Amino acid sequence: MDVNSRVELSETTNANVKVVVSSNSNMKFAAYLEKNVLSIDAYNPGISTITVDINGKKFNLDVNIIDNEMSSTLSCIDEKVVLISLESGRRAGNIEMELCKS
Question: Whole-model pTM above 0.70?
Fold first, then answer.
């Protein structure tokens, strides 16, 4: 998802990003930021509210990860994109993704 910032943010140069809280202890998350694009990896299906910290600013996101079995010839596209604005402070959002198994 896009991060709205006046400067280009990347973990390798000027940004510290991490998932600091998950409301579901059975789910694990990792976050990455490169050129103002935030990527979140989810390990295990379920519903959770996560808190992402980017350079000390915290954003709450509601996440619903669905375990989906598909053939290897198909791909998953089911994502609701949320714009996070570093200029306006906190903003809650929703993300829905499918985990695909071939």
Answer: no
